[in-house]
Write a structure and sequence with these properties.
This protein is mainly alpha-helical. Helices cover 73% and strands 3% of the residues. The chain has one domain: VKOR domain (de novo design (two linked rop proteins)), CATH 1.20.1440.130.
């Protein structure tokens, strides 16, 4: 069950990163990754694009990765979660990560072509999304092959 451990580790890293971004979002201090106008977590994280309906995107990120972490533990133990079996939980993570990747691409576009500033921690979260997505695709393939054998 090595693949699910990768997802768990990525979720923990994403939760910690998102929590820091929430802190910076509401803080009056500058972050350690505020390097220049072109590389600034503060510019990105405090822009009007950093919220949806006055909710910080970093908070939404923290909640999504916390949910994925929770269901990943159920997948690891091969237990149902709220009536969903292991295969359905894997599919749930897959669809969440597909949506997250599309949303991340939109945010990268905003960083590059609207704000002209890159958030290093946001890019780290994007990488974690890609790693989780690739890992969950491999896990889905393994489950599909096991089911059809």
């Amino acid at each position: 069950m090595k693949k699910i451990n990768i997802i768990i580790i990525c979720c923990i890293l994403a939760i910690l990163t998102s929590a820091y971004l929430i802190f910076i979002h509401y803080s009056n201090t500058t972050s350690f990754c505020d390097i220049s106008n072109q590389v600034s977590c503060d510019i990105v994280n405090k822009s009007s694009y950093s919220e949806i309906f006055n909710i910080p995107i970093s908070l939404i990120s923290l909640l999504v990765f916390s949910f994925i972490l929770l269901i990943s533990f159920h997948i690891k133990k091969n237990k149902e979660f709220s009536g969903f079996n292991r295969k359905e939980l894997v599919n749930m993570i897959f669809y969440l990560m597909m949506f997250s990747l599309l949303f991340a691409l939109y945010l990268v576009y905003i960083e590059l072509f609207v704000l002209y500033s890159i958030c290093i921690l946001c890019l780290f979260l994007d990488i974690l999304i890609i790693v989780i997505l690739i890992t969950i695709i491999k896990l889905r393939i393994n489950l599909y092959n096991a089911f059809n054998s």
